[in-house]
Predict the structure.
Amino acid sequence: MRYLSTRDARPQPATHSFEDVLLAGLAEDGGLYVPQSWPQISHAEFESLKGRPYTEIAARVIAPFVECAVSASQLRAILEESYASFDTKLVVPLVQCGPNSFLLELFRGLT
């Protein structure tokens, strides 16, 4: 995965590795780094994630963005440690608050 700046208007914008954008934060031109292309998850794979632990889903979604910079086992360990302090195994539970209304609770861990 390569990243480019939102402010780089050249026909061939400069691209950067995950490691470079992680350490840089903002692009030199003041733009935000975004993926050069967006990874896709097939409908079948998306369906296969139903009921899986949050860390497993997060690892699958995040993996294409970090590619070779972080191994699958390292990523899983980082996520396990990151979500360990959340006060629910669901990490970010979806709570029904009305007939067709739901809220995603984003206050369950460190903020």
Summary: The beta strands are 3-5, 33-35, 94-98, 101-104. The first strand starts at residue 3 and ends at 5. The longest helix spans residues 54-66.
